[in-house]
Amino acid sequence: MRSLEKKFFLLVLAAFFSENSFCKKVFIPIDETKLPAIKSVEQLDKDFVLAQYDAELERNNIAIRRGKSPQVNFFAYKAKKGDTVSKLAARFCVISDTFVVINSISSQDEEIEGLDIIVPTAKGLFIPDPDFQNGRESQLEILLQKNRFPLADADGAIYFEIRGRRYVFLPDEHFSPTERAFFLDPAMIVPVQNYWISSAFGNREDPFGSGRLQMHKGMDMAVPEGTEVVACKGGRVAASGEDSVYGKWILLEHSGGISSFYAHLSAVDANVRNGAQVRSGEPIAKSGSTGQVTGPHLHFEVRKDGNSIDPKKYIN
């Protein structure tokens, strides 16, 4: 275990410094490319790194029970087909509260296959620093910042810098009933900001002058061309393309038979590849006026088992 202890020497040293008056706060950058990688969560006897994780977690559990501060280290795991938040929480012997926030997982039912998961070796909550927001905070993160950060941001606090964001760790804490309700809430986020609804879901008169009533299967969200479009919920890129009616478009698949459709885009981001996983709030495109339109807007659809439903029932 000596090599593992050397690997995390800086984390231990930082924890020591945090207890001294001359060190107000400690900032520890976490390079996920250098974390020990757990290959399998099902074959303990064949994965030495998983055994290392279990040993560190048990040491920290003992430290917490004795009223001591845990030495938080991190491991990496790429989620496989069939993995879920609850399944990984059970295997890593922590409640999901411990790892979902630092991995930007916004809900219990989010599809996580293919995601690079960072797994801490101590139970508790990671609270995002509101001074390092990226504009894509989930409702859960905003609630955590409001309720928990003033208590966590104290002298001696240790900040972990992960994927361009900064978190304070609260040992042995878990979501309150209200925070858990936000995590379990299946609502989606709005895919564009500062919009107005130029055409709602439902029957409407043909906007191109035929005079006929037509079923409008989505919501038209009028925004300036080039406005950033984000994934309304974590999911998988099922397809993307371009045609004469919808212009450039993207189809995302979410859990529970839900999918979302984005059309009339001016550009599709490079991360949008068929089969790729995207997180809730992750940029996927720019709005535009491609295809059959009367002006720049985002055509946004929500589908349940392939049938279009009113997006207003789902988005916050």
What distance separates the N and C termini? 48 Å
Radius of gyration, rounded? 22 Å
Mean pLDDT: 84
Total strand segments: 19
Oligomeric state of the chains?
single chain
**What can be said about the biggest beta sheet?**
10 strands, antiparallel
Unreliable parts: 4-23
β-strand percent reads 25-35%
- Reading the helices and strands in chain order gives HHEEHEHHEEHEEHEEEEEEEEEEEE
Secondary structural class: alpha+beta
Helical coverage, percent range: 10-25%
Total count of helical runs of at least 4 residues:
7
From the spread of the alpha carbons, the general shape counts as elongated
Task: Describe the protein.
The structure is a single chain. The protein is α+β, with helices and mostly antiparallel strands and 316 residues long. The chain is 21% helix and 31% strand. The chain contains seven helices and 19 strands. The termini are far apart.
